[in-house]
Amino acid sequence: MPNVSVVGLQWGDEGKGKVVDYLAGDFDAVARFSGGSNAGHTVVIGQRKHTFHLLPSGVLKGKELLIGAGVAVDPVVLKEELSLLPDEVRHRLTVDSRCGLVTPQDKELDGALEDSRGASRIGTTKRGIGPSYALRALRLSPRVSDIAADYDFAPLSSFYGSLSVDPAGLTAWAVESRELLKGLTGDVGARVEGVCQGGGSVLFEGSQGTLLDLLHGSYPYVTSTHTVAGYIPAGLGIPPSLAGKPLGVAKAYTTRVGGGPFPTELTGPLADRLRSLGSEYGATTGRPRRVGWLDLVALKYAIWINGVSELAISKIDVLSQAKEFKACVAYKQDGSEVSDLQSALGNLGQVEPVYDAPFSLDGASYSHGLPPPGRRLVDYLEDQLKTHVKLVSYGEERSMTIEL
Ligand code: IMP
Ligand code: MG
């Protein structure tokens, strides 16, 4: 079995957690390579819903769990997450010693920076992710390995102080974090290499979505790190040859949490209906998600930049009750039509979507396999996107998945 990565092709919340849990059985380890506790990956088994923010979604399949150097680790969240799970989970977990940490002050700063932006606020998750990555770039952020010994917090404290953020409590936080991380840290890159050399394989779990990538998304309305498959080797410390084959996950419509351009956004009763049918509320913040039709222009870009060769389409069931289905095939920009995201990315707030309404999926039921309307959607997407659809998800529960 070759290594595989699961990456989000929209603005996050595509259903990566469910897909990772579904696929994890075939792998020896599941590894996170970017993001932090801003992520909310949901896995539903029977009546029980689990939401993971830092732990890889392979946790419920008994797999080895790896948190790579590219992840911003909030020890408070990790502790809480581990406390809800059996003790044995700790023994399967390795956190890379090079991971940057999220301090309580980073969370305070995240909120303060948002407030200072006024109407142009990004709508961050306030999990301290932006400040943590920014401090890493400034070489002020303590890493997991740094707090294993006595760490000189003077430069960081003075930086926080200059922004009127009280640095008090950093040392106590470090001592508590050191306690939690004791015995959990290691070299994740070497672990991935070891699994592969032993004939095993690793599933890489992306977080957020392609359009939230710091460099390649809808800047400045993005997260503070990289979400694209190109970051897998750097975020884990492995050679690109081990990064595996990317499987892209996309919802059958589009959602976005927070601010920023969203060409296919819907408002009014139809938006309310889609939001309620799809239970579109943030897994991390509980915020109502903005909803809209499927955007094939954005999806083509995401498929290209991630090198995706197979797709998982989620929440197809929501379209069975939505009465209609539309897909955006081009954007109108300055009187002309463009069908590639690259030429519109700097102007995404101004473009008008051009829609195709090829068929309705009304009333389709998926419990006995893919019905004719679902087949039509799969054929349509494969034709438009030139990419094979491997998985169709028609509900939250683990078993509500059709493999094609
Ligand atoms: P941050 O990552 O908390 O700094 O937030 C930056 C932007 O990314 C905001 O619009 C967030 O709503 C969005 N975002 C961050 N993480 C996720 C996620 O896991 N799912 C969906 N949106 C996210
Ligand atoms: Mg999510």
The radius of gyration over CA amounts to 21 Å
Number of strands: 20
Our count of helices gives 12
Bound ligands, named by name, code or SMILES:
inosinic acid, magnesium ion
Could you tell me how far the N terminus lies from the C terminus, measured between alpha carbons in angstroms?
Answer: 18 Å
| Percent in helix | 25-40%
Q: Indicate the overall shape.
A: globular
How would you state the average pLDDT, rounded?
96
Structural class: alpha/beta
Largest sheet: 10 strands, mixed
Side-by-side strand order of the widest sheet: 9-7-5-2-10-1-11-15-19-20
Strand content: 15-25%
Task: List low-confidence stretches.
Answer: none
Descriptive report:
The protein is an alpha/beta fold. 28% of the residues lie in helices and 20% in strands. The chain is built from twelve helices and 20 strands. The chain has helices at residues 16-23, 75-83, 88-91, 104-117, 129-137, 154-162, 170-181, 188-197, 232-236, 269-277, 296-306, 372-385; strands at residues 4-8, 29-32, 41-45, 48-52, 64-67, 72-73, 93-96, 100-101, 185-186, 202-205, 245-251, 254-256, 290-292, 294-295, 310-314, 327-333, 336-338, 352-356, 388-393, 401-403. The strands form five sheets. The protein has a ten-stranded mixed beta sheet, with helices on both faces. Strands 14, 16, 17 and 18 form a four-stranded mixed beta sheet that branches. Strands 3-4 form a two-stranded antiparallel ribbon. Helix 4 crosses helix 5. The longest helix is centred in the N-terminal third of the chain and has 14 residues, at 104-117. The model has no long low-confidence stretch (mean pLDDT 96). Residues 12-13, 38-40, 122-125, 127, 129-130, 207-208, 212, 221, 223-224, 257-258 line the site of inosinic acid. The site of inosinic acid has 20 residues, from helix 5.
